[in-house]
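Researcher: Last one for today. Full complex below.
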Amino acid sequence: MSSLPYRGRFAPSPTGPLHLGSLLAAFGSWLLARHAGGQWLIRVEDIDPPREVAGAVESQLATLAAFGLQSDLPIQYQSRRHPLYQAALTQLLEQGKAFACHCSRADLAAQGGIHRHCVASQQRAHPAIRLRVDDGSLVSFDDGLQGHVEQVVDRDVGDVVLLRADGYWAYQLAVVVDDAEQGITHVVRGADLIDSTARQILLQQALGLPTPHYLHLPLLLDASGDKLSKSQAAVPVDATRPLPVLRWLWTALGQPPAALDAATQVDELLQHAAAAFEPGRLQKTSLRAPEWPPA
Ligand code: GLU
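Model: Here's the assembly. Have a good evening.
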C-alpha cells in the first residue's frame, strides 16, 4: 500500500449516457477524495469499440461537468494509451507470466468458462493472451467499506484474459496499468466491480505494481429494498437539473439532507457536501435510494 497523497478517479466506459449508478460512483469517489484532501481524476475507458455508443464520451463528460465534477488533471483516454498496455503485456510474456491461448468460449464451456489449461479445438489466427494464474492463488484485501474480501482466483476466475481474441485490450489489464501509471492511491467504484479486484491485485503483483486501496460502494436499491431494476438503473441522469439529482445521490450515500439545504448553485452544493461528508455514514450492504425522480 502506498503512502502517497490521496488520488482517486472515476473511470466510465462510454457505453451510453451516465446513469444514476455510475453518477453515484462518480460523486462517491469525488466526496471521498475531497474528504481526504486529495485529487480526483476522470479517465475515459474507451478501449472496447464494439460496446461503445457514438457520442457517449461527450455526453458523459458534459454530464459530469454539469454536476461540477471536474478532473483535477487532464482527462486521460484509454484509446490513446495502447503503448502502455503493450509494454505491460510484453513484460508478462517475456517473463513467462502470460501465454497465447486459442480456446474459444465453446471450448471452455465444459470447465464452466474457467481456463486452467488450453483445450482449444482449433488454432485461431489471433489468439487471446492470458495471465497464467498459479494454483492456490488466494488473494485477499481489506475493502474500505466491505471489509475483508478473499477470492481463490485460479478456481473462481482462472487464467485472466489480457488481450482478447478480437484484438482489443481487456479491461483488467488496462485498468491495472492505468491506475498505477496515474498514481491512483484509492479506487472507489460500484460493488459490481468488487469481483474483479482480486484478479487486478494478482495482475499488479505480476507486473510489480503497487496495489491501491479499494472501496466498493453498494449498489442502489429502490425504496422497497429491491435492486434498482435495469430500466431504473439505466435511466440517464438529467444534466439540466443537477441540484435535485446531487441531493438525491447525497441521501443515497447515507448523508444527512439538511447539510445541503442552503445551497442554490452546484459549486456551492459541492462545497457544502465536501465539508459535511462523513465516510462513516456510508452503508456497507445496500443504498436505499430515495424516491426517484427527485422533486
Ligand atoms: N470502466 C468501468 C466501468 O465503467 C469501471 C472501471 C473501474 O472503476 O475500475 O464499469
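The chain is about 35% helix and 15% strand. The chain has a mean pLDDT of 93.
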